[in-house]
TrEMBL record:
<keyword id="KW-0472">Membrane</keyword>
<protein>
    <submittedName>
        <fullName>Flagellar biosynthetic protein FliQ</fullName>
    </submittedName>
</protein>
<keyword id="KW-1003">Cell membrane</keyword>
<keyword id="KW-0969">Cilium</keyword>
<comment type="similarity">
    <text>Belongs to the FliQ/MopD/SpaQ family.</text>
</comment>
<keyword id="KW-1133">Transmembrane helix</keyword>
<feature type="transmembrane region" description="Helical">
    <location>
        <begin position="51"/>
        <end position="70"/>
    </location>
</feature>
<feature type="transmembrane region" description="Helical">
    <location>
        <begin position="12"/>
        <end position="39"/>
    </location>
</feature>
<dbReference type="GO" id="GO:0005886">
    <property type="term" value="C:plasma membrane"/>
</dbReference>
<dbReference type="GO" id="GO:0009306">
    <property type="term" value="P:protein secretion"/>
</dbReference>
<keyword id="KW-0812">Transmembrane</keyword>
<keyword id="KW-0282">Flagellum</keyword>
<dbReference type="Pfam" id="PF01313">
    <property type="entry name" value="Bac_export_3"/>
</dbReference>
<keyword id="KW-0966">Cell projection</keyword>
<dbReference type="InterPro" id="IPR002191">
    <property type="entry name" value="Bac_export_3"/>
</dbReference>
Length: 89
């Protein structure tokens, strides 16, 4: 295995991981920002007020985007397995 192949595989791994995590992280960050602005406006500093909406959003996002995330992960794994013969000439 050459170093350029290892770097390409690592880049593909990180890019796929980023794409898989993006919906859940993006939505929870958006909800966290909205709740933080709401807390600043109302001056209510309750810790559970930030935790519960983000937890519910993450759960809903996993349910909604879970099949897509699993499909992306399976495609990445299948691509790795099918490319094994080409890696070692």
């Amino acid at each position: 295995m050459h170093s350029d192949l290892a770097l390409k595989m690592t880049a593909d791994l990180f890019w796929t991981g980023f794409l898989i995590c993006l919906p859940v992280l993006g939505l929870t960050m958006l909800v966290g920002l909205v709740v933080s602005v709401l807390q600043v406006v109302t001056q209510v500093q309750e810790m559970s007020l930030t935790f519960v909406p983000k937890l519910l959003t993450a759960g809903i996002a996993v349910v909604m985007f879970g099949p897509w995330m699993l499909r992306m992960l399976c495609q990445f794994a299948a691509q790795l397995w099918t490319n094994i013969p080409a890696m070692f000439p």
